[in-house]
Amino acid sequence: MNLPNKLTMLRMGLIPFFVASYLLLDATSPIPGWIFMAASITDYWDGYIARRDHLVTTFGKFMDPLADKVLTLTAFILLVGKGRIASWIVVVIVARELMITGFRTVAASNGVTIAASKWGKYKTTFQMIAIIVLLMEHSWLSIVHQTFLPDLFVWLALAFTIISGVDYLLKNHQVLDLNNI
């Protein structure tokens, strides 16, 4: 297994530790935020190293976005459970992820690969930043407590989630073969 794929698997492996720390520790603990940050950083490095060293694999193409989705959706759902983010926002995020995953599956079954777009990368980045800010909001380390930043990053994450979903559909609408409904 190459280094980028090991980093992806590390991200997946950190998820149970993130969940346990979030559920078991006090809301002011920075540990869940640190674990989530460490997992998020692996997302950048696995992609960077894979492209730089020409280590892109089929396994990585499958696992990297899956690890991102499992990590971010897990965090969003936990945050809803503790009232830190509105459930309707997470419903929109989950719906977009399911829609685009299904869309990519249909495309792949027709031999079409839909690469990640810049909007999708922005979406993931802003979702991860929003989660980190929400996780650290009540931590004694937080500089954002009682500011507009948590709300700002949540709204940016939501906006990029919607924009990227619409972008994927508009650029690849032929995959749906709408003439044969």
Task: Explain what this protein looks like in three dimensions.
This protein is mainly alpha-helical and 181 residues long. It is built from six helices and no strands. The chain has helices at residues 3-24, 31-52, 58-81, 87-109, 118-136, 149-171. It starts with a helix and ends in a 10-residue tail after the last helix. The model has no long low-confidence stretch (mean pLDDT 90).
- The span between the termini is 43 Å
Q: What sort of overall outline do the alpha carbons produce when their principal axes are compared?
A: globular
- Whole-angstrom Rg: 17 Å
* SS elements, strand count: 0
Structural class: mainly alpha
Range of helix content: over 70%
What is the chain-wise order of helices and strands?
HHHHHH
Number of helices: 6
Biggest sheet record: none
Strand content: under 5%
Low-confidence runs of at least 5 consecutive residues: none
Short structural summary:
With 181 residues, the chain is mostly helical.
Helix and strand topology:
Blueprint: H1 3-24, H2 31-52, H3 58-81, H4 87-109, H5 118-136, H6 149-171
Characteristics:
single chain, 181 residues, 6 helices
